[in-house]
Amino acid sequence: MSSMQDETIAAIATTLGEGGISIVRLSGNNSFSVVDRIFCPAKKQELSKAVSHSVHYGFIKEPGTEEIIDEVLVTVMRAPRTYTRENVVEINCHGGIIPSQRVLQLCMKHGARLAEPGEFTKRAFLNGRIDLSQAEAVLEIIQSETNVSAEVSARQLRGEFSEKIHSLRFEIQEILALTELTIDFSQEDVEFPQSCEIAANIRRVVAIITDILNTADKGMILRQGASVVICGRPNVGKSSLMNALLKHERVIVAPVAGTTRDVIEEYINIGGVKIKLSDTAGIIKTRNKVEEEGIKRSIDKISKADIVVFLLDYSCLLSERDKEIFEKIKNKQIVIAANKSDLPRKLNVGGAGKCFGGEKILKLSVLKKKGLEEIEDALAKKLFKNNMTLPEGPIITNIRHKNILEKCAKSVKRALKIVEENYNAELLASDLNEAVYQLGLIIGETAEDDVLDRIFSQFCIGK
User: Fold this and answer.
1) What is the pTM of this model?
2) pLDDT digit string (tens) for 25-49?
3) Count of Cβ atoms closer than 10 Å to residue 358 Cβ
4) Of 268, 305, 278, whose CA–CA distance to 145 is shortest?
């Protein structure tokens, strides 16, 4: 254990501001003795002698002056049955900035130090209560903005993903052990597994990694959300559609074409996914410098979007401008809708669909609030490739995990090629060792200090 882990740490674990309660959390060998110096329990029992997971009423007082700082409830939790697997004390103060800060300052004055960001969770990892991927899941839960992303993160915290990685790593280590035996005892009269058997084992590993990687697109969307851009020529109702999807008036709407001259962004929840929705300037040819800059920004935003909603005008014939816009977006995932379907139809919907690669064109009337659910359903289906159910088993929601698994996949595929084409035990062992190392980075077995520092620095102080 490092000298930093020998220290008792303290931090405010709740959001600063007015509220019902505010919690000051301590963790470390001296947590009980630190709080004993400032806590006057109603029953006169020292916390160092209290049973684990018990709650004690009393007052926090300034030693020496006996000034009452706050009336509190103190929870005692003894190692190892705690979040950090260390002795933990939580002081429940009255809500507000001043009481909790004064209590924290007293704790620091009497033997604790201020915790670093994420240090409580880092100690849980270093003390073996959770692995690194589970620690990252804690942060993902904190940052969740939809019920679905919170559910996926909770599955990661329960160990669904890390258990698969541990199992996969063990399987590769088993193959590696057999390979190293063939190196160590190559001159002995010992019977070793045939190369076809080793190849079969490696193929199974490749298949497992591939299955996990196939969850990444959906997992990343569930975790990070997606970008949806509304585009079309001027005055087709882009801003009106954005307001309708947001269910409030966010964008100025006027009958004059070109009201929107810049990209406007807001967030909505569709199918349990956080969506960054962008309204863009109508794409036209113009000499107006302001409009030109707005259109440039619109095109840039479209190029980075996950999905583009392309709006047509149901009450107008298909124009050359519509076709030019489609050429700019045809390689994106597209939802096409014809707005103003409450007006007499002039648009040849079937003909337009053929012009646009056979894409289905949805009928929409933002004014009458008709077709909005169909737009949302179409977006959800595009996001999830028509499969809106959560995958069974482990899901990749973290770009770090995805990148590492891709490197691991390359290593085991190289290993398979060695076995199938020109068996060389030393080269095989090298690639298998690399795969084991890469998987260790996910669960923290082989992660360097700078990686750990980078991960835990993203946490707030108190977690």
Assistant:
1) 0.81
2) 999 999 999 999 999 999 888 888 9
3) 7
4) 268
